[in-house]
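I would like you to sit down with the pair of lines that follows and say whether tokens and residues agree.
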Amino acid sequence: MTDYKSFSWTDLRANVGLEGVNKELDERTSGIFKTLRDITSMTMSTSNVELYNKVKEFRGTWYPATDQYDRTVLHLAALNGNTKLVVGLINSGAHINARDGIGQTAVTLALLKEHFNTAKKLIEIGASLQNELFVDTIPPLEVAKVKENEHLHGCID
């Protein structure tokens, strides 16, 4: 079996499905997410500026990261309801409307997992809710209607 640890993100993504590649992508992306999550938790008592600076410092590491499903670190932060990290990533250059392999964005995943505060923050920052952008998956507005929550009132009108 090939050792994929030295492969670039581009080479790994070009070989999704090969034995070991998916595992390497998932482990790398998960490890980066955990590091960023730890940075977020360590800066709880400090300013958001410090958090954004630390997240931005690691941009070269987290920006190209995607797991086997093309989920970015922003997707993982939204899936986990880590609003502070979501904001830090976006303020440090993450694409707010990045789509995973089936077309879901961070806001869609936050809504599906019922992380309404995270979804609300993504919407406030500018996450797209336009149905025509989600032809391959459930649009966020449809998820929001099903998962209706008082936190979202005023955000999805």
User: Anything to note?
Assistant: The two ends are 52 Å apart (CA to CA). The first helix runs from residue 9 to 14.
